[in-house]
Amino acid sequence: MRARTGARSFRRIHVLACATSLATFAWAAPALAQDQGNLQNSTTSQPAAPQPAVPATANTTSAAEAGQPQDAATAQDVSQGNSAQGAGDDIVVVGLRGSLQRNLDLKRTSSGVVDVISAEDIGKFPDSNVAASLQRLPGVSIQRSGSRGEPTGITVRGFGGDFNTTLYDGRRISTATGGRQIDFSTVGVDFIGQLSVLKTPDVSLASSSIGATVNIAFPNPFDHPGFRVAATGSGSIQDRSGKIVPTGGLLVSSTNADETFGVLADVIYTKRDTDTNRVYVSGWPGGNFAPCQLAGSTGTCTPTSNTASAAYANPANRQNLPGWFPQQYGAEQQRVEDERVDARIALQYHPSDDLMLTIDNNFSRQTITQENYAFGVWFNQGDLRNVTLDKNGTATDFTQTGTPTDFTSALNKQILQTNQTGLNVKYDATSNLTLEGDVAYAKSWLNPGDVIGSRNGDIGYGNALSNNLRFTVGGNSKDAFPTISNYGPAGNAAGWADTSLIGSHVTVNQTQHNTDELVQFRGNATWKQDDLTIKAGGQFYQDTFDFRNQSTFTNNFWQAYAGYGGPSRGTSGISPLPASLYQGSVSLNNFIPGFKGSLPPSVFVFSPVAYQNYLTSLGNPSAQNVPGFNYGNVTGFTGTFDEAVDPGSVLKVRERTWSLYFSVNFKTEIGSLPFTFNAGVRNEVTNLVATGQGRLPTSLVTSTADPTLLSIPTYTPVQGVTNTSSYSYLLPSLDAKLELTNNLILRVDASRTLTRPSLSLLNPVLNVGNGQRIGALSASGGNPNLKPYLADNFDLGMEWYYRRNSYLAVNFFLKNVSNFIVGGVTRQGINGLVDPTTGTAASFAVSQQVNGPDATVRGVELALQQVFGDTGFGFQANATFVNTNRPYDDKNITQTGFAVTGLANSANFVGFYDKNGFQFRTALNWRDKYLLQFGQNQNTGSFGSEPTFVNQSFQIDLTTSYDITKNFSVFGEALNVNNNQQSTHGRYSNQLLDVFDYGRRYTVGARYRF
């Protein structure tokens, strides 16, 4: 052992006591000695001195401190939980309560508002999903994937998605999802060291988060010196899929005897299978009904808004009654396989106390394969009759003649792959000055290679076999879905699934290909002397994002065999289809347990790949006559359903940002009360270049195969369009902390932060896609000149650490946000097109975003953590109450309605027992109803962008583990034990959009660590 290693043991307590979350404080030796003494008495009211092992925010540690092991950083009150003997005489914290104490230490010593979740030990994170862990924190709620039930994103203080920045070890991570936020279900959680949620900014880390900055800290070799092994293996089953699938992980870490070099490598394989039942309405567009459409009306009915029309002379035909109707209704079963591989390798070189080099690489690849089996029916507002409108204008009962019925199957595949490589160098130039350089390169791919993202098969009956379908809304979206009646071919319910009457309809293949390439560099200098820390530096990153979508919509091949065939008296289509295509059915009886409403009997199970292969086997319609081919609308089809790139979807965005920052942190006294003050400023300059491909349709034609469709046979030539923009902002931050007593802390914080617009909104062209629907023409346009959201943030909080591992906190926050980006929908003509169904100018619902109004968000967070002495029992509880001066106004039917999204009251409770190697936790998570977004799957109405609300949810999760030996433990997990279902609705609560029933999941496994 080299001589410096002996000195390291002497410095361990002193140096690590200096490590803090937002800035490094110098603690006086007498105070440290006093608090260390208190560690021996579990009944003292004086909490132990905070000694955080891992910085919760930007790394202000020196090169020497970076080489210290984490295990010895936090002493343990032996009576308070599980412990293990560490190096020398150190007592190492392990177990849940040890992790909770470390979290409190980091929170308490931070100069800003920070919440932390630490691993209990290497290879043992508290939850199986990053977002699931984060929702235990005050002010943090999760968003779930409907089809999987997995937490995929977070909302912090009402701000979700792009409003939150996620970092890997202080670095931005690329993501090809289409936004700036990451999908948390792509992050392997088994070997994460720590999660930090910064609700007030650290200017040396980032100021690009109006919600919060989440920093995910991964392990390094010198976190746990010596040879370490951690392994985990488990099997899980979802109650509906009935299939056990594996998860396994292995971490190996080693440092040499002199502790100058270390290597760590880990790999995690995760599999989740989920069968989810879904009932959906694709959208509730708003429009105007004619009086003749209402229940009780008699005589002929010709709804019109054309004042020159002869029908307009009759007041009963005039469309002047505002209301909302369902665009498409159906039910489906989704069978999802989620397979993920995560891997990390980290090398550290520490030749002296003055130098630390770290090279690491993080890799993840998630493959989601989804099979969907569904039925769907389509409605047009002008075709509805016998309409009953409730007091809000929702069509709660109506009939529609000529309604076709479609059975669909889809094979969807999404691959999201990310790789990041980074180099970090720390050098202690003097005993006071530390220099740091960090460079990283990351790239993310969505559907790399020749992946087909979605293969769809659509069969059914219509035309002569259409029915006079009745649709009825039977209650609130939180416990009821609509009922349809008089279904079946020509209204014959007994023939609902008569395969002799079913024929081919549309065939859609489509794939989104994205890449996101990110280069970043950070350099800073930190000066620490006594109670003063000064930090200055700069950061640069270049983010290059490429979008491209290809589909059979672009070349119109999707209609190749539309028309349903002979039994429906279609002019095209194949019927009957081979019996070998049908592989069974899914019953829709009791499809969503606990929900009122009724559905038709079943949906078919069939392979879209086999269906498409059958149609291809019929031959090349361009070389020979193929009966059933849609010669009236499709040209260039040679037999295979090849995708074509949609020029309007092609987008390249290059964003370059230069930042300079400076911060000062010092500790002093005000009237003998310890006072910590941190002030910083960050200046960010952004240059942006957005390039798209523009074209406009030259005509609209009706489809001979489907009376609900319109096609665009020709466009103007494609032209490249490039737009440049830039902006610069000064982002100050101030944090003040006053220790009123040894246990009571007052915090005051103020800052300015920003959130950049989503990259997908910056397209400089108008996109008019093929496959338009009659009465539902739509187009979308981007805005490359969008400016960031800006927020002035204020926090006032009080924290009472009344005993070890227990605290009570109250935090008030206020955010004044300007430059809100609003997605308005306007009705307008495009390129002089004429609607062939009306003979008048075609009216498109055009969606486009602009910077608009300001809003204020305010709220309060309450948090309580209590451990009951030596009993092993304890709990965590928190609640967040939030509101705004710009709530949603459901009476506003203008094109530019606006409200703050994501705001909801929430509460979480975790009760636990942790003693003698046995651990049990019950987690209860509640979130009230909230406005998720403006926009629905079908958003073509006259009243702008319709809202999507998420109904309140309440979920109970259970976890348990038992340490069989010091190194080996077994564990179990039961998620969603109360079978919580996720449901959404439109403008009003009875406008159901989606209800997902994704069931319960059970996991049993084992861990080994050495």
UniProtKB/TrEMBL annotation:
Presence of the UniProt keyword Signal in the record: yes
Domain TonB-dependent receptor-like beta-barrel: 460-977
InterPro entries with a match to the protein in the record: Beta-barrel_TonB, Beta-barrel_TonB_sf, Plug_dom, Plug_dom_sf, TonB-dep_rcpt-like, TonB_rcpt_bac
Membrane topology, as annotated: Multi-pass membrane protein
Signal peptide limits: 1-28
Record bears the keyword Signal: yes
Annotated Polar residues bias: 71-84
Residue ranges of domain TonB-dependent receptor plug in the record: 107-211
Family: Belongs to the TonB-dependent receptor family.
Classification via NCBIfam families: TonB-Xanth-Caul (TIGR01782)
Name of this chain's protein: TonB-dependent receptor
Classification lineage: Bacteria, Pseudomonadati, Pseudomonadota, Alphaproteobacteria, Sphingomonadales
